[in-house]
Specification:
single chain, 148 residues, alpha+beta, four-stranded antiparallel sheet, two-stranded antiparallel ribbon, elongated
């Protein structure tokens, strides 16, 4: 079944295939049964092949999102994060954000904890890029953009 998903994704150059939650759930249940029932080397090798197919499916779908195709299917939310990462990366590298020593100036959209610190809504904070990526995806922060 997973090989069919990879094959279908390869056949559609101009879009991301629609993979339903039901289809993925059936696949997951089948592989869970396989994992629970067998632990011999042959089945471990079989599972390794399924893992490689899953990795190929992810890579194909990620490539299409990076190329600008709209994410859809069971993994739409996960693939949409790629667009957020892409935007933050481009904006950071092209100097769209106020930065200081590799960190990004951000405005807090909500109250949240950052380690031992409580950040209040409206606070201005400076964060490394990896934290910006993590917190922007949850809409906790907005990087401060340079105005012309």
């Amino acid at each position: 079944m997973l090989d069919e998903l990879v094959s279908n994704e390869l056949k559609r150059d101009n879009e991301i295939t629609e993979i339903s939650k039901d289809t993925i759930e059936k696949l997951i249940q089948a592989l869970l049964r396989l994992r629970r029932k067998y632990s011999d080397e042959l089945h471990k090798d079989e599972l390794k092949i399924y893992e490689e197919l899953a990795e190929s499916l992810l890579e194909l779908r990620l490539e299409k999102v990076i190329e600008g195709f709209e994410p859809k299917g069971f993994d739409k939310d996960v693939l949409s994060l790629v667009n957020v990462m892409k935007k933050v990366y481009i904006d950071y590298v092209t100097g769209k954000y106020h930065t200081y020593k590799g960190k990004v100036l951000c405005l807090s959209n909500t109250k949240f904890s950052l380690g031992d610190t409580v950040v209040e809504q409206g606070d201005v904070i400076i964060l490394p890029l990896n934290k910006v990526l993590a917190l922007i995806t949850t809409n906790y922060i907005t990087p401060v953009e340079v105005r012309e």
